[in-house]
Amino acid sequence: xxxDDTCYESRPGVLISHAWxxxxxxxxxxxxxxxxxxxxxxxxxxxxxGVRGSNPDENSVLMQPLLNDRPLLQQRMQIALSQCxxxxxxxxxxxxxxxxxxGGLCVLDLARTGADILGVxxxxxxxxxxxxxxxxxxxxxxxxxxxxxxxLATPGQVVSLxxxxxxxxxxxxxxxxxxxxxxFSNPKANDPDHGNVYSPDADRRSWQNLxxxxxxxx
Length: 218
Prior knowledge:
By secondary structure, the chain is of the alpha/beta class. The chain has helices spanning 25-36, 56-68, 70-86, 102-112, 155-167, 200-217, and strands at 11-17, 40-43, 90-100, 119-123, 141-147, 172-177.
């Protein structure tokens, strides 16, 4: 958790949900950046006890059980939200969540449960819906920051997500970045052979869009 300790008033909290490798310096640095903006950054650990993968095979082994059991994934996200709200530095009435890759799916699932959260933001996330949230109303505002050529989320899946969010009554927006693929915000995830390419432009633009989104929420 990161916050500006020169400020003694509670302030909005933002959960940060990690990519498939587990919580890392990348998410922790995002928490620090959010603290510089006047928020509390709350980087969560869905795998528990600091467990992390060191290669794609290990990452997949960690992630797959939660993809196979979306209610369990949603439960862990709800626990993280509850814990964030309990922190004295956090204004419990003003909380949002953001996530990267697998973490993007996680924050979308949190919204899909109808959780009492102001908004969620997905960075190069995965869109396939779970089997247990159809018919739910999504009260959270939703921001999707997406590389249009992402092989893990095709244009057809983008349209399906938009239709899902519309049906659920969400106030949603999707920003598509042209000539941009998966993992565009993380230089360390750059791996063209596997369809992951860092994009300084998309990274900068998506962070600007996030700041506008959070300012509107809070």
